[in-house]
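ingest -> validate -> predict -> emit
validate: passed (alphabet ok, no gaps, 122 aa)
predict: started
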Amino acid sequence: MIEQSSGGANLRTAPATPSSAPVPQPHLDRNMLLHGIAARRRRLAELETSMVEACERAAVRGTCRKVRMNDHDTWDKPTWQRYLVAAARLEPDYMPRMRRLQQDIDRFERLLTLPMTAAPAQ
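emit:
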């Protein structure tokens, strides 16, 4: 706080807290970080599943009867090629979002390793 005096501005300090009062330590809520990680992992899994389904739909077009879509061992080279072409086509839409989610997960996991994320003392 600044007070005006005849000699100019003086800085007045706030009274010190008694030494017996516990000083609150800064901390991050561990549960909130864990919740954020779980939510982002769920969203990442949803995006991955969506992209794989879209690629498989593209791969199934024009397949012969011996190819079973749920059994990748039966896929022939043209089926795999259609799958990869679809993945390359979808990459600009999916990958930035997936990359951002993975970066968020990594960042939150690093925050969990900090001492300030330990459960606050009761």
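Residues 27-114 form one domain.
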